Amino acid sequence: MKEQLVKSTDMIYDGINKCTSITVHETANEKIRANAQAHANLQSSGGARQASWHIQVDDVQAIRSYPDTAKCWHAGPAAADSIAVEICVNADGDYDTAFKRAAQVVRDLREKHNLNRSAIKQHADWSGKDCPAKMRLAGRWQEFLSLTDGAVNMSTMVSPFDGRLTQNHGDSGGYRGHKGMDIAPPKPGQTGMPVYAAFAGTVRKIHRTAKNGGKTSTWAPGRTGNGGLISNPDGEGNGYNHMKPLASLKVGDKVEAGDLLGYNDKSGNQTAPHLHLEFWADWRNPNSDYDPQLAFKKFGIKPGSAPAKTGNVTPVQSKPKPKPKPSAPKPSTGGNDKGDYIAIAKALNAMGLKAGYPDGVNGPMLKSATKAFQKQHGLVQDGNWGAVTQTKFEEVKAIQRALQKQGYTKQGVDGYYGAQTTENVKDFQRRTGLVQDGKAGSITQKKLGL
Ligand SMILES: [Zn+2]
Ligand SMILES: [Zn+2]
């Protein structure tokens, strides 16, 4: 999902949204171009009159304006612990597609917050307002509810890659903007390891000419390297990246869960070999990505566990190289996306750890700053940004908690040194007569009581 978070907290209640329900709205604005982007911009600019909502959806995309934890103004104080989803009804949009996309968004939220059908509300349930009006008029509420049942509406899933989870999706602790899950091979640096289809489906896109280290995008905007995209019978999509597809695999081929798709390679922009796996709620929409953990959990599969093959393996034409080159395997860094390293470098710099210029590269300065961070937290000092290091992101959380104690209550304690934290730190610095650079250096931290 695209994120365009509102920086101001003027239009939300204080406190943390308990996410006990989801409320469906429609914008009631049928003007042309009154789409999700226009509504997100309206919220960003502070132009929405006395109202706020978490997510807006049209026929093209869903855009998040507030984290789930924000208490938005969308159906009165009674609905402050509800997540608000607005469906756009602009005349130049396709309402039916927006309706289905909104159902996918609600379905993912249900999985994320463990909510059953009864927790899905209409705006009308809170206040009696005729909203979502178009859906109500057409009598499509039950249809909408049924589309929100169950993430990955499939019967079989197979672990796609043997190895270990090194980076989660942005929604569950991975870096913001990380649209998939990274699974590194059992031994760092291994290539030529088999990748299997997690779900049955149809091959939609194949890319096999990417260069090692190349940054050109391939089967989806922003993704680099070889790989493929498969659509599932329920309309979802699965993307496999940094994988050399089998020579025999072509667009239109049907695959079963567990079929061999190819072998992991060094193509694209990656610092150490891994499978970058993406799950999309709509295979046509690269921004409909959701956290693959939802599917792994639903099927009781541990990411990186040994795949259960079907035997329906397509014959291999080019023989894989089972033995990786023994020379100097690079340790896995856990992350692979430029944006990840920029976020890590910014956060480490903010902690005074001198990670260097945030250029999206895991260079020596970033590595030594990561090592210093690991040393501070009693972790293995390997300079790799794996799952353990990520969960120890306590320092940013401590800064956010301390800011909350100072009265900056309108932000999530998420361990991410994002725009909201920076703004709050700036305000705090202004108040305490410090340089207002938004960086929580040692002086600021001391003043915060850390
Ligand atoms: Zn409404
Ligand atoms: Zn990745």
From TrEMBL:
The family database entries (SMART domains) matched by this protein are listed as: Ami_2 (SM00644)
N-acetylmuramoyl-L-alanine amidase domain sequence ranges: 6-133
Where is the organism placed in the taxonomic lineage, from the top?
Bacteria, Bacillati, Actinomycetota, Actinomycetes, Micrococcales
* Top-level lineage group: Bacteria
* InterPro entries reported for this sequence: Amidase/PGRP_sf (IPR036505), Amidase_domain (IPR002502), Cell_wall_metabolism_enzyme (IPR050570), Dup_hybrid_motif (IPR011055), M23ase_b-sheet_dom (IPR016047), Peptidoglycan-bd-like (IPR002477), PGBD-like_sf (IPR036365), PGBDSf (IPR036366)
Protein name stated in the entry = N-acetylmuramoyl-L-alanine amidase domain-containing protein
Q: Where is this region: Disordered?
A: 211-241, 301-339
Classification via SUPFAM superfamilies: Duplicated hybrid motif, N-acetylmuramoyl-L-alanine amidase-like, PGBD-like
